[in-house]
TrEMBL record:
One Pfam family named in its UniProt record: Septin
Record has Nucleotide-binding as a keyword: yes
Residues annotated as domain Septin-type G: 58-324
Annotated GO MF terms: GTP binding
Alphabetical UniProt keywords: Coiled coil, Cytoplasm, Cytoskeleton, GTP-binding, Nucleotide-binding
Family (UniProt): Belongs to the TRAFAC class TrmE-Era-EngA-EngB-Septin-like GTPase superfamily. Septin GTPase family.
Localization: Cytoplasm, Cytoskeleton
PROSITE patterns, alphabetized: G_SEPTIN
UniProt cross-references to SUPFAM superfamilies, sorted A to Z: P-loop containing nucleoside triphosphate hydrolases
Organism: Trichinella nativa
Coiled-coil segments on the chain, per record: 360-416
Coiled coil recorded as keyword: yes
Protein name, entry field: Septin
GO CC annotation: cytoskeleton
Length: 428
C-alpha cells in the first residue's frame, strides 16, 4: 500500500488544523483513498454499539448439525453446550435410511436472542450403503444453499427478513475406539468438509484413558492430513481471540463428555457422569475438552462460523451453480432473469410433483379404505353364512334324530301289531 501526503494547506479552525489528508493507493482496487486524521469526535466510532443494538433487535441465527452414529451422545452434548433441555426424540437403530431431524429453538442471554437450529442425523452409520448415508446429508446441505440462492435471485427479495437455514457448524462425532477413523468417518468428513465447517469431536471420551486419548488424537489428525480432509481451522490471524484459537486448534479433535445429570461435589452441584469409582465432570478441563469446545464454538467464533459459511462455502456453491445455469460475470437483466427461471423451475416442478404425490396418496388411501370396508362386509357376510350353516346342520341333526325315533316307533308298532295278530289267531 502506497501512502501520499496531501501537500495542500490544512484548514485552520480556532488556530488548529482540523485534519491531515493522506492519499492511499489501494493495491487490490487500484483506487486513491484519502485518510483523514480527525481532530475531534464525529460519532462513527459508535458503529459497534449500533450493530449491537441491531443484533439485540433482530437476534442472530446459528444452525448446528450433529453427525454421528446412533447412541453416541449427540443430543446430550447439545443440551450440555447450551445448558438447556431440548427434549430431542431418541434415535432408532432400525431406520432404513438417514433422517435429518431439524428442531428450532430461541435462546436468550443478556438481552441477545439466539435463533438456534439443531439438525440431527438419525440412523447415520446403521445402513449397509454408507455412501448413500453421506449423500443424504450432502443433499440436505446443498438444498439449504439452493434455497438461499433462489431468494437472492428473486426480483423482489428481502434477505434482511429471510430466515437463514444454512448450516454454520457441523460437529462430527467420532467413536472412541482408540484405533483411528473408520472408513465411514474418512468418507463422510471428506465430503462434508467441502460443504460445511466440520469440527471433529471424540464422543464419550471418558471411556478411554488419557494416554490412549493422546495417541487416538494423534492418529486421527494424521489420517485427516493423509486423506486431505478439510476441517474448520479456528482463525489465528485476528488479534481478537488469536491466542485462544491457537489453543483450540491444538486440542482438535475435542475430547468431550456430555451429561444431563448433576452430582453434588463439595456442597455444589456440578454437571457430571457418575461411576462406581467416582465422577467425570463435564465442565472440568482436567477431565475433558468440553469447556474449550463451548468457548471455541459459541463464545469466540460463532460470528466467524456464520461469516465463513456465507463468504466462502456458500460462495463456492453459488459460483458453481450459476455457471451451471450459464451465467457469466457481468450478466444482468435477461441473463439473471433466465437464471432465476431455471432455478425456480425445479422448485415449481417439485411443488407440482409434491401436489401430484399428495393427490395420488389420498386416492390410494381412499382405495385402501374402500377395500378394507368391502373386506369387512365380506367378512361379516361370511360369518353370517357360517353361523346359518351351523344352525342348519344342527337343525338337520335334530330332524335326523326325530326321523330315527319315528322309524323306531314304527318298527315297535309293527312288532306289537304282529304279536297281537299272532295271539288272536291262536285263540281262534
Amino acid at each position: 500500500m502506497v501512502v501520499e501526503l496531501d501537500t495542500r494547506d490544512n484548514e485552520i479552525e480556532n488556530g488548529a488544523p482540523i485534519a491531515v489528508e493522506e492519499r492511499i493507493l489501494h493495491p487490490a482496487l487500484n483506487l486513491d483513498a484519502r485518510q483523514l486524521e480527525l481532530k475531534g469526535y464525529v460519532g462513527f466510532s459508535n458503529l459497534p454499539q449500533q450493530l449491537i443494538e441491531k443484533i439485540k433487535k433482530r437476534g442472530c441465527t446459528f444452525n448446528i448439525m450433529c453427525v454421528g452414529e446412533t447412541g453416541i451422545g449427540k443430543s446430550t452434548l447439545m443440551e450440555s453446550l447450551f445448558n438447556q433441555s431440548f427434549e430431542l426424540d431418541p434415535c432408532s437403530h432400525e431406520l432404513n435410511r438417514v433422517e435429518l431431524r431439524e428442531r428450532n429453538f430461541e435462546v436468550e442471554e443478556r438481552d441477545i436472542l439466539l435463533k438456534l437450529a439443531l439438525v440431527e442425523t438419525a440412523g447415520f452409520g446403521d445402513q449397509m450403503d454408507k455412501e448413500n448415508s453421506v449423500r443424504v446429508i450432502v443433499d440436505y446441505l446443498n438444498n439449504k444453499y439452493e434455497m438461499y440462492l433462489q431468494e437472492e435471485l428473486r426480483v423482489k427479495r428481502n434477505l434482511r427478513l429471510y430466515h437463514d437455514t444454512r448450516i454454520h457448524a457441523c460437529l462430527y462425532f467420532i467413536s472412541p475406539t482408540g484405533h483411528g477413523l473408520k472408513a465411514l468417518d474418512v468418507y463422510a468428513m471428506k465430503q462434508l468438509g467441502k460443504k460445511v465447517n466440520v469440527i471433529p469431536v471424540i464422543a464419550k471420551a471418558d471411556t478411554i484413558s488419557k494416554e490412549e486419548l493422546k495417541r487416538f488424537k494423534c492418529k486421527i489428525l494424521e489420517e485427516i492430513r493423509s486423506n486431505d480432509i478439510e476441517i474448520y481451522h479456528f482463525p489465528e490471524d485476528d488479534s481478537n481471540g488469536a491466542e485462544e484459537n491457537a489453543i483450540f486448534n491444538s486440542v482438535v479433535p475435542f475430547a468431550v463428555v456430555g451429561s444431563t445429570d448433576f452430582v453434588k461435589k463439595s456442597d455444589q452441584l456440578v454437571r457430571a457422569r457418575q461411576y462406581p469409582w467416582g465422577i467425570v465432570e463435564v465442565e472440568n478441563e482436567d477431565h475433558c475438552d468440553f469447556l474449550k469446545l463451548r468457548a471455541a464454538l459459541i463464545r469466540v467464533n460463532i460470528a466467524h462460523l456464520v461469516d465463513r459459511t456465507h463468504t466462502l462455502l456458500y460462495e463456492k456453491y453459488r459460483c458453481v451453480r450459476l455457471k451451471e445455469l450459464g451465467v457469466k460475470d457481468g450478466d444482468i437483466g435477461p441473463g439473471m432473469m433466465q437464471a432465476y427461471k431455471m432455478v425456480s423451475s425445479p422448485k415449481l416442478l417439485a411443488q407440482v410433483q409434491s401436489t401430484e404425490s399428495e393427490v395420488r396418496e389420498r386416492f390410494v388411501q381412499k382405495i385402501k379404505a374402500k377395500e378394507l370396508e368391502l373386506k369387512e362386509k365380506e367378512r361379516e357376510i361370511q360369518e353370517k353364512m357360517e353361523t346359518q350353516n351351523r344352525e342348519f346342520q344342527l337343525e338337520m341333526q335334530r330332524l335326523d334324530e326325530k326321523c330315527r325315533q319315528v322309524d323306531k316307533e314304527i318298527m315297535e308298532f309293527e312288532h306289537a301289531k304282529q304279536q297281537f295278530l299272532l295271539t288272536k289267531t291262536k285263540k281262534k
